[in-house]
Design brief:
heterodimer; A: 103 residues; mainly alpha; elongated; B: 136 residues; alpha/beta; 5 helices; globular
Chain lengths: 103, 136
């Protein structure tokens, strides 16, 4: 508790949305895995996976999931690299790390 | 000039949720949101916000293109725009200011500090006699 009840109330509301986001974070990681699988098989453009990784990178940290956000950023960059002809190794490594961070 | 109405534009729903709460509950702003550049243009015309927080990377109409569209309309040309971006490259940031942004806020952001950062940018911009290009 601080001496600012409005700030305490705001912090409490943020805690609630953060808890709700935890469930969505897990679902978003699953969706990202699916999108990457689709890109790898050629069923979908890799740009779709890049977009999901980019969004997650910007959002997860804003909910306090800093590690997940940073790992999503690395995954985004690795996916961009694949799109430019690079190997999948870095994608696989980042994805494994990100899955390990799923709530 | 008091700033109370903020239009928050981002294509990620979860980002809009935490951003809206941060600006409303922590900062005391009145918030409207938009999920795309096209949506932002419509809402800006209808609601005439005092400031727009605009995501840079969005499909179709991205932040830069949206800003140009806002500047091209007399009704919205003077609204200050702050870019929200996950990018940190100095060249990118410099380009955002060249496009006419009055400030840049990095994603991820701390929800307890977001409103303070918005106010600081607006205060500094006013003190420096900013120009959004709308009256020129």
């Amino acid at each position: 508790m601080s001496d600012d009840p409005d700030r305490d109330a705001a912090r409490a509301r943020l805690d609630v949305v953060r808890q709700r986001f935890a469930a969505r974070l897990a679902a978003r990681i699953v969706e990202l895995v699916d999108r990457i699988d689709a890109a790898r098989s050629g069923a979908a453009p890799i740009a779709d996976a890049v977009v999901l990784a980019h969004r997650l990178a910007g959002t997860a940290g804003s909910y306090g999931y800093d590690e997940a956000g940073e790992q999503a950023r690395r995954l985004e960059l690795a996916l961009v690299d694949v799109g430019e002809g690079g190997a999948w190794d870095a994608v696989d490594a980042s994805l494994a790390e990100l899955r390990g961070l799923s709530p | 000039m008091p700033f109370s109405k903020v239009l928050l534009v981002d294509d990620d729903e979860d980002l809009r949720i935490v951003g809206k709460l941060a600006l409303e509950a922590v900062g005391g702003f009145t918030i409207t949101t938009a999920s795309s550049g096209a949506d932002a243009l419509r809402v800006a015309l209808e609601d005439r916000p005092d400031v727009i927080l605009l995501d840079m990377v969005m499909p179709e109409l991205d932040g830069a293109a949206t800003l140009l569209e806002l500047r091209a309309r007399a009704e919205t040309s003077g609204i200050p725009v702050i870019f929200l971006t996950a990018r940190s490259d100095r060249d990118d940031i410099a380009r955002y200011f060249e496009l006419g942004a009055v400030g840049v806020i990095r994603k991820p952001f701390d929800p307890m500090r977001l409103a303070r950062d918005v106010r600081r940018i607006l205060r500094d911009g006013e003190a420096e006699g900013w120009s959004t290009g709308g009256d020129e």
